[in-house]
Amino acid sequence: MALDLTLHDVVPDGDEPGLFTVHVSVGGGCGPFRLYVYLDGELVGAWHEASDRYEFRAPEQRGPRSVVTVRAIDSTGRWGGTSRVIRTASVPTAVAVAAST
């Protein structure tokens, strides 16, 4: 059975262009969870222990929109994933991920 992974929202920072907060929750499965974040198919962050907040620097963007994909894997190898299209700027982008399990 797959994990229930929910990408609640992607919120741009009003003070710093290109900075985003992504809120994620993982349901089911057995911790600890590994979390992977992709931006337009490119891995931009990976964590092997659950935390409340993750930060990473994303590569430069070429267009006004990008796809954020979040995948989680539990200790038994079960996984779940979800994606969302977000608006991005054509400048280097820093992204913060907040997760709750």
% residues in beta strands: over 45%
- What's the level 1 CATH class? Mainly Beta
- Biggest sheet: strands side by side, in what order? 1-2-8-5
What is the CATH architecture assignment? Sandwich
Q: Unreliable segments (pLDDT under 50, ≥5 consecutive)?
A: none
Number of helices: 0
Which sequence of SSEs, written as H and E, runs from N to C? EEEEEEEE
Helicity, in percent?
Answer: under 10%
Rounded mean pLDDT score: 77
- Quote the distance from N terminus to C terminus: 17 Å
Radius of gyration, in Å, reads: 13 Å
Q: What overall form do the CA principal axes indicate?
A: elongated
Please describe the topology of this protein.
Layout: E1 4-12, E2 20-27, E3 34-39, E4 42-47, E5 54-58, E6 65-73, E7 79-87, E8 93-100
Parallel strand pairs: 2-8
Antiparallel strand pairs: 1-2, 3-4, 3-6, 5-8, 6-7
Brief summary of the model shown:
The chain is mostly beta strands and 101 residues long. Helices cover 0% and strands 59% of the residues.
